[in-house]
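Appendix B. Raw example, untouched.
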Amino acid sequence: MADKQDDKDVPQSYGLLLFPQFEVLDAAGPIEVLNVLSNYFVDSKINLSVITPNKDLVSPGVGQNFLGNQLYKPTHSLDDAPPLDVLIIPGGRGTTGTNEELRHLLDFIRDRFNGASGHAPLKYVFSICTGSDLLARAGVLDDRRATTNKRAWTRVTPDGPKTHWVANARWVESGRVWTTSGVTAGIDGMAALVGKIYGEEVAQKVCDIIEVCLWFVLVVQSNADGLNSTCGLRIRVMTRSLSRMGVRMYCLYEIHDLVLCSLVKAEDGFPNRYLLKLLSNRLKDVR
């Protein structure tokens, strides 16, 4: 992760966009990262606006059931939302409507990202899970790299025909646009964004408090002829070692696939620090 940003570039105003049938953990995970940040580590004040289409209470469900009985109170509507530096957009079933049904949300996202109606452009927009579908439909992801929930991949990605969709990524940074994979990936991506803005030391302390791992960015260089056979052997040894340690297979696959193909980019997030030690020991020839 990079060193902290200059104070003048540090976001002050965060907005959380909620809508009917949003995914709760998509919203709550990144917000908890920011809660800890604001309580313990930010000298200057940061603030949060909770924005819904009409300033009505919103629910992640429909009807009188477990989800439907949950109600979340906004602070602002789309029309009276204050100036924002960062806009956080969760996913959920509420992202599956037609463009006409979602028109007001899409217009708000597009206008705030670009800086319309007298507002400054967002410093960052951050989506979780299928929140990236709203970004894609608003045109924010055109000519950018992005990811989304893998279980919704075939539904979401056609909505961004000009987007370079990255399947093997926990999160993807593309300039001011950050997109994360499904649900819990929002926690990891927000921790990475905190590291970019406030510095890696602060991000690590936040992660220690909420007891999650701070993921690192792995960049593997290969020569012009690709990865040599010695490197391939090292990778195979590494993956077997990780498997014996009980590391989740999707992490293994992503590391293995991307290292072998030499497709890792600096803005894609991959697994945590204790894996970095294993990688540095086993991949010295290509690091």
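End of appendix B.
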